[in-house]
């Protein structure tokens, strides 16, 4: 049988899913083979009703133009631009949701919410220019929420969350190339307009528009993280666990799945409050909350809730026979979940009006009655638990420790233990002296086209050998956690000597009596801007731009449109950005050239598309060395 995953718990459960007649993502992938070559290369257009139109990629006998006259370059660029618009819309919706929660709090309409992190609240208010003198938290929250919501529509001034968070040089560059989005939603609307029939046909111009849109994505993501930290607390280092073995036989297992912490935070609180009810229902362990996907990462970062699994293997949690309920919000949730759940007793509970699924139970969540809604949801889990068949429970006995909670603020705090007056100095010194070759941010999804986790694990091992400091988010963090790589032991085993020395010194300074983990878990996917903020702080301190720093990014198993927009803003910020799965652009050599070469000339950042992880590591190390040479180190 084909190898699907290198994660042992996934491997065990794939067989269990098969035995339970659950049709998994891997079987559905097989049933899609062979996938359409026009789609794979980006040469198919359905942007009007005259289509679909397809371009012959070999230029031999087939058409070279769509019915309207669009050529390969136009069609490929338009397709990619729409991916980026969709990714941006997703992150922006997440950010707006948090802004609405903050607004409701300010109006007294969200009694279960409050300002959890006063320091971050003040820091953000000061950064975005809201005067705080004599105003109450509720008044200030209202002002901040309004300022945040204003970011989304078209305005004359540049988005505040862009202008105040990137280097001045980068901002000037964006202005020079017309890359400042007029508004975070309006840039998505503009992209949809530009890419419909008969508007923008100049591939390079479309790509510039797509980059502008992705810069809007960056600002929306930054905003989302700021507001999450204010409402729910800025993460600090915390120990958690990973793998499907975190499910418990003697507890009511509830997975929080999706992306936004607005609901899951309340579930965490209510699960503790309702412990006796769970025990009375026959579960001596009470509720056992676990995370799936980025909602899981949010509660892992702030509460040490274990991560069970992530996007690609979400169906496998059901196949354990021990998952009593999955509570989902939005994004990366497979519509297949309710059908898989029907083979067992699991309740799938949708909570958002924009994200329902046939076969699921819908309990509409709102901030006004958050606690009551969370209780209602947990009672559905209790009822489902009563139907659990103990004979069918199959929890793989695999659990790894994983350190999480390493926000940008936490990184600075750890560095300040070494040098309180100048926290960035130890990091800079170690980059200059070569102990650390550079920094790499691991992001993005698992993709069914890759043996699950294989690219992540292979690439990170190559890079740490070369003393590259690793930050990770989202499903990359999930993957590393599953393989025991977010631990001091992994540092001992895999880090090159320079990196090991630095992580050991920092770990000791932090009182761990052991090195920091091999990769620093900086948050969920929407938190990728935490890493960007560290890079910006370094650049500002050195008086250079991010595009000069030895910093790279990678999404070795990228799957979602959101990953494409994140990769594009990483390029816009100036980072060499690796992707391990070939995106649908190869039908246009011009688009490929712009993304992998021209971008470097214009912005400093560029895409490295490389499915072979050994080669990818070499290319990334070469990019880091090129940057170091540019800085004369
Ligand atoms: Ni980001 Fe990847 Fe989804 Fe989170 Fe995972 S699939 S694009 S990491 S869960 S968003
Ligand atoms: Fe075909 Fe042009 Fe319509 Fe696309 S926009 S489907 S290429 S006619």
Structure overview:
There is one protein chain. With 633 residues, this protein is an alpha/beta fold. It folds into four domains: 8-54, no CATH class; 72-232, Substrate Binding Domain Of Dnak, Chain:A, Domain 2, CATH 1.20.1270; 244-392, Rossmann fold (3-Layer(aba) Sandwich); 403-631, Rossmann fold (3-Layer(aba) Sandwich), CATH 3.40.50.2030. Helices cover 50% and strands 11% of the residues. The protein is built from 26 helices and 16 strands. The strands form four sheets. The chain has a six-stranded parallel β-sheet with strand order 6-5-4-7-8-9. α13 links the parallel β5 (287-292) and β6. α4 packs across α24 and α11 (261-273) crosses α16. The termini are far apart. The structure holds FE(4)-NI(1)-S(5) cluster (NFS) and iron/sulfur cluster.
Provide a quick synopsis of the model:
The chain has 633 residues and is an alpha/beta fold. The protein has 26 helices and 16 strands.
């Amino acid at each position: 049988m084909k190898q699907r995953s290198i994660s042992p718990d996934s491997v065990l459960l794939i067989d269990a899913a098969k035995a339970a007649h659950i049709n998994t993502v891997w079987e559905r992938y097989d049933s899609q083979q062979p996938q359409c070559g026009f789609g794979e290369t980006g040469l198919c257009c359905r942007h009007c009703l005259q289509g679909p139109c397809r371009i012959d990629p070999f230029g031999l006998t087939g058409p070279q133009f769509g019915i309207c006259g669009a050529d390969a370059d136009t069609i490929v660029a338009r397709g990619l631009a729409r991916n980026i618009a969709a990714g941006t819309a997703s992150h922006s919706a997440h950010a707006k949701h948090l802004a609405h929660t903050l607004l409701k709090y300010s109006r007294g309409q969200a009694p279960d919410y409050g300002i959890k992190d006063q320091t971050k609240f003040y820091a953000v208010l000061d950064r975005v220019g809201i005067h705080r003198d004599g105003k109450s938290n509720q008044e200030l929250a209202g002002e901040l929420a309004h300022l945040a919501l204003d970011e989304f529509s078209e305005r004359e001034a540049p988005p505040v969350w862009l202008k105040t968070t990137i280097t001045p040089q980068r901002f000037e560059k964006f202005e020079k190339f017309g890359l400042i989005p007029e508004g975070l939603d309006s840039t998505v609307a503009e992209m949809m307009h530009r890419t419909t029939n008969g508007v923008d046909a100049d591939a390079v111009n479309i790509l510039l528009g797509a980059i502008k849109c992705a810069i809007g994505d960056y600002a929306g993501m930054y905003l989302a993280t700021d507001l999450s930290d204010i409402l729910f607390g800025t993460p600090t280092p915390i120990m958690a666990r990973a793998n499907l073995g975190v499910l418990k036989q003697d507890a009511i297992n509830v997975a929080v799945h999706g992306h936004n912490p607005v609901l899951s935070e309340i579930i965490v609180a209510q699960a503790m409050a309702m412990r006796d009810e769970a025990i009375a229902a026959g579960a001596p362990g009470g509720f056992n909350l676990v995370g799936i996907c980025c909602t899981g990462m949010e509660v892992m970062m702030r509460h040490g809730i274990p991560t069970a699994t992530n996007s690609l293997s979400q169906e496998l949690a059901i196949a354990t026979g021990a998952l009593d309920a999955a509570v989902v919000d939005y994004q990366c949730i497979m519509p297949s979940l309710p059908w898989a759940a029907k083979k067992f007793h699991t309740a799938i509970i949708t909570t958002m009006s924009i994200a329902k699924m046939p076969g699921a139970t819908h309990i509409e969540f709102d901030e006004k009655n958050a606690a009551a809604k969370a209780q209602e949801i947990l009672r559905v889990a209790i009822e489902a638990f009563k139907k659990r068949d103990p004979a069918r429970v199959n929890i793989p006995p695999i659990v790894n420790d994983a350190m999480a909670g390493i926000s940008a603020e936490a990184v600075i705090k750890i560095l300040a233990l070494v040098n309180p007056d100048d926290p960035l100095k130890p990091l800079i010194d170690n980059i200059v002296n070569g102990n650390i070759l550079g920094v790499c941010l691991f992001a993005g999804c698992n993709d069914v086209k890759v043996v699950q986790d294989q690219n992540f694990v292979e690439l990170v091992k190559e890079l740490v050998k070369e003393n590259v400091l690793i930050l990770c988010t989202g499903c990359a963090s999930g993957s590393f956690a599953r393989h025991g790589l977010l631990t001091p032991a992994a540092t001992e085993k895999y880090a090159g000597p320079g990196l090991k020395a630095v992580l050991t010194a920092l770990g000791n300074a932090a009182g761990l009596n052991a090195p920091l983990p091999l990769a620093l878990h900086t948050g969920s996917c929407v938190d990728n801007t935490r890493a960007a903020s560290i890079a910006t702080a370094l650049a500002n301190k050195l008086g250079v731009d991010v595009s000069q720093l030895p910093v790279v990014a990678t999404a070795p198993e990228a799957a979602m449109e959101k990953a494409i927009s994140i990769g594009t803003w990483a390029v816009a910020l100036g980072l060499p950005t690796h992707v391990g799965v070939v995106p649908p652009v190869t039908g246009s050599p011009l688009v490929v050239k712009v993304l992998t070469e021209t971008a470097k000339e214009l912005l400093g950042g560029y895409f490295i598309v490389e499915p072979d992880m050994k080669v990818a590591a070499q290319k990334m190390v070469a990019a880091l060395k090129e940057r170091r040479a540019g800085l004369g180190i």
